[in-house]
Structures are given as structure tokens and as C-alpha cells.
Amino acid sequence: MDTQNLEKTAIKIQSWWRGNMVRRTLLQAALRAWVIQCWWRSMQAKMLEQRRRLALRLYTCQEWAVVKVQAQVRMWQARRRFLQARQAACIIQSHWRWHASQTRGLIRGHYEVRASRLELDIEILMT
């Protein structure tokens, strides 16, 4: 073999070796980039899950507050209706008692105070 042939062969081997080294370096870089991308995607998924949980917690807190306000309003309305009904019942009872006392009979009487005694004379007439 002559020197020129040897040089060409050496150049081919060197270019093959450089090509292998470049491909290996590119493969390592691609694998490292893939690892970083996987890590970044997992971090994004975790952050998204945290935001979703926070939004859900806020929503449930607001919903619970709304439920509490609604319950308070309903309780206030029920209490107001109860008080109105009780007041109406008291008015009806007082009018009924007055009417019953007016129509049941007449109470007549007189009293005298003598020294330290009270003499009381009551006469009830039923009609």
C-alpha cells in the first residue's frame, strides 16, 4: 500500500470516528433534553393539579358560605313568620277573652275599707 492510499484510509477512519462521536454527543444531548422535558411536564402537571385543588377549595368555600347565608335567611324568614303567627294568636286570644268576658255575664260589686279590714262584696250575674 502506498502512502496516499494509507492517508485516504486514515481519513475515512477519522471521519467515521468523528461521525460516531458527534452522533453519540447528539444522542446524549437529546436524551438529556428528553429528561429535562419529562421533568418539566411533570412539574407542570403538579402545578396544574395544585391550581385545580386550590380552585376547588375556593369554590367549595364560597359554596359553603352561600349555603350558610341561605340557611340564615331561611331561619330569619321562618322566625318572622312564627312571630307574626304568635302575635296574631295573642291578638285573637285577647279579643276572644274580652268577648267572652263581655258576653258571659256581668260582674258587679262594691268594697269598703273599715279600719284595718277590707270588706268585699262581689256579685256575678250570668246571662
From TrEMBL:
* Superkingdom of origin: Eukaryota
Task: Enumerate the PANTHER family for this protein.
Answer: IQ DOMAIN-CONTAINING PROTEIN F6, IQ MOTIF CONTAINING F
Protein name as it appears in the record: IQ motif containing F6
Query: Which gene is transcribed and translated to give this protein?
Result: IQCF6
